[in-house]
Specification:
This protein is mainly beta and 182 residues long. It is 8% helix and 30% strand.
Length: 182
């Protein structure tokens, strides 16, 4: 009897209660690991990691800073089309829309660089797109600021790199010596 009363009460409350808001959308899936090369060097030191802001205009770091000396070749990390090559606020910038990364496509940015490519050029992974310009005050030493966006959303560019490029290979089991064979 008590159970019936409880169930009837709960059913009545649910019928008269305002509808709950829809659940928040799930976060966007991570970018595909399309990169096959670092933009500078073979495994550069990350001087400053990606640190997304809490709000659109909040403080944060919308890319990663990679240590490299001025004059270093800057390479496209994946195949794509150059969407911009020129000056922004006195710094050389190259942006590449990556092939096969959806609509809108992922776009990588590199600065400060002296571009060696023009807008519209098709580039392959590892192809030189510029040279690293002298420090512009962004880093305490010379660095490349490497960014990643999909439309207006900033993403962590390191997520483009496969684990082996990050120095994180698969786990390997070594043989156990002295164990009986079955």
């Amino acid at each position: 009897m008590r159970l019936e009363l409880l169930l009837t009460t709960v059913a009545a409350l649910l019928a008269t209660a305002p509808h709950l808001p829809a659940p928040a959308p799930s976060p966007a899936p991570p970018p595909p690991r399309t990169a096959t090369a670092w933009p500078v060097g073979t495994r550069p030191t990350v001087l400053r990691a990606w640190d997304p802001p809490a709000t659109d205009y909040g403080a944060g770091h919308r890319g990663v800073d990679l240590a490299a000396p001025p004059g270093s070749p800057v390479r496209a990390v994946a195949p794509g089309r150059v969407s911009f090559a020129g000056q922004v606020a006195g710094r050389g910038v190259v942006s590449v829309e990556l092939d096969g990364t959806g609509d809108p496509p992922l776009r990588t940015t590199y600065e400060p660089v002296r571009p060696t490519v023009k807008k519209g050029a098709e580039v392959s992974a590892g192809e030189q797109i510029g040279t690293l310009a002298p420090p512009a005050g962004h880093c305490p030493t010379s660095c490349l600021h490497w960014g990643l966006r999909r439309a207006d959303a900033y993403l962590d560019p390191l997520t483009l790199l496969p684990p082996w490029l990050l120095g994180r290979g698969p786990s390997r089991l070594l043989p156990l010596k002295g164990a009986p064979m079955r």
